[in-house]
Amino acid sequence: MLTIENLHAHYGLSHVLQGVSLHGGPGEVVGLFGRNGVGKTTILKTIAGWVPATSGSVRLDGADLAGRTPDAIARLGLGLVPEDRRIFPGLSVEENLRLGLLQCPARSRRENEAAIGRAFARFPRLAERRHQMGTTLSGGEQQMLAMARVMVGTAKLLLIDEPTEGLAPMIVDEIFAIIGDLKRAGLTILLVEQNIHRALDVADRFYAVERGRVTLEGDAASPKDRARLMETVSV
Amino acid sequence: MAETIDYLQFILAPQALNGLSLGVAVVLMALGLTIIFGLLDVINMAHGEFYAMGAFLALSLAGLGVGFWALLVLVPLLMIPIGWAAERWLIQRVFHSRDRHILTLLLTFGLGMILEDVLKLAYGPNTMRPETPIAGGTEILGMFLPNYRLFLIGFGLALIAAVWVVVFRTRLGAMVRAAAFDKDMASSLGVPVRRVYAGTFAFGVALAGLSGVLLAPIYSVFPTMGRDFILMAFTVVIVGGMGSIQGAVVAGLLLTQVQAISSLYISPVWSDPLVFGIMVLVLMVRPRGLFGRLGNA
Question: What 3 state SS string does A138-174 have?
Fold first, then answer.
């Protein structure tokens, strides 16, 4: 589904990604772990087309993403749930949600409305607040909205960046339940998360990132691999 | 008592209505400016020349026998590809550089000068005055009002309402507001940001052209006609809040009323300084203007 080979990226003069290679198979949840500032978010931003790759390749379902704009990449089936959720102020909850439909301009109106209906049924809190401005929601609700926004579209690959950051434990449970649902629905998920233990429970495989490079690949179910990961990411 | 009513009826009210007819045209200009600024972060210095271009296009087409009603549709339609091309081929060239504000300002300023000279070369520097498309007048409550001004007020207000509906009540408008606030996130949801940019710029340019068509019969047509008008439109955008749609409407109607009413009491020469004085005052007290920017809550 997702194949990244020898990916390099720069912010100005700083060489942020120094040859990242990783892959995610269909229906697989892949964890991406590492300390702050090692390039995890940049990997996601480069896949999404926000940061141009200096060299290397990113393939989504066989299609090379090089030189494509973020909206073209979205229409190829990429869904992004970014750090800080990025809910649009000045847009209602429903308007925010409906922007997710732009991923599939060819889909019929009936199917679109059905997708919106399913999202509101899955997240009754959002349905109750559909006419409120999106940014008046609580942090947890905004995270739900950011997840729902990619669920109404036709994403095959989801990039989820720090979805539980700053949220109460009960909401964290709910977020991981949603990720579990998405996994069962057959989506490929690349998950960046500081809460490594919770993330490993839902992940199939993981990568550890250090200073712009992938330094470890492991099986989420293997105690040996988990132990090596903890050595890598602990200070 | 009777004197007061006479004064209201025969002096104040007609002047206010004149101000309103100018006001709706100013609002149409300011709407284009403020939407372009709100979305693209570009101050379109050529806006006044696009307005002049609309007026001249109307003049030429009318010479070919196109009727006024057709002009109201045709001129904005013709302005759309012009605006689209200006955004795609000129503004996009400097849009991603770090000096975007200065470069786009200079670029559109230069574009305006070129357009103005092209109009001078094509039509000569003299003033032309199209015939009033709607002749006659109507008596309302004892006041005699030119029909064309009444039409201008009604049509302008309907158009302003239509723009509001498009921006705040449609999916297209939600795309524009989302892109104005966070272009990367909007893009990653599938909003075709480049097309939204070009389309919005073209839409603003078409509104300017339409104002040109509407005001030509009142203020005459000449190549530098955009200059006076654009100052007023910029003032409106600054007072209302750069990038705010509500602000453009409220400030546009308010400032043209100030101009119209004040010229009853002071020499009209002083009504412009009064309007600009209000702008300076607003900038001192509330620098971001009366209302917030497009895409922001």
Answer: CHHHHHHHHHHHHHCCCCCEEEEECCCCCCCHHHHHH
Q: Looking at beta carbons, which residues of chain A come within 8 Å of B170?
A: none
ipTM confidence score: 0.94
Residue B31 pLDDT exceeds 90: yes
CB-CB: which of A50, A102, A133 is closest to B189? Answer: A102
Query: Is the CA virtual torsion B84, B85, B91, B93 positive or negative?
Result: positive
Complete domains list, chain B, with CATH: 2-285 (1.10.3470)
Q: What is the pLDDT of residues B149-179, one digit of tens each?
A: 999 999 999 999 999 999 999 999 999 999 9
Q: Which residues of A touch B246 (CB under 8 A)?
A: none
DSSP bridge pairs for B137: B146
Is A103 near chain B, with CB under 8 Å?
yes
**CB contact at 8 A, B240 and B290:** yes
A71 touches chain B (CB under 8 A): yes
Contacts of A46 in chain B (CB under 8 A): none
Interchain contact A74–B (C-beta under 8 A):
yes
CA distances from B181 to A155, B40, B178 (A): 23, 10, 5
Alpha-carbon distances of A211 from A15, A16, A34, A196, rounded to whole Å: 9, 8, 9, 18
CB pair distance less than 8 Å for A103 and B175: no
Cβ of residue B178 closer than 8 Å to a chain A Cβ:
yes
Ordered strands of the A213-219 beta sheet: A78-81, A157-161, A188-192, A29-33, A205-210, A213-219
Question: How much is the mean pLDDT over chain B?
Answer: 91
Q: What confidence category does residue A235 fall into, taking pLDDT thresholds of 50, 70 and 90?
A: low
Question: Which positions in chain A touch B194 (Cβ < 8 Å)?
Answer: 69
Q: State residue B297's pLDDT score.
A: 46
Over residues A99-105, mean pLDDT? 95
Interchain proximity B182–A90, CB inside 8 Å: no
Distances (CA, A) of B53 to A102, B9, B170: 35, 37, 30
Confidence (pTM): 0.90
Residue A80, CA distances (Å) to A49, A75, B241 in order: 11, 12, 33
CATH number of A1-77+156-163+188-235: 3.40.50.300
Query: Residue B1: CA atoms inside 13 Å, Cβ hemisphere, count?
Result: 0
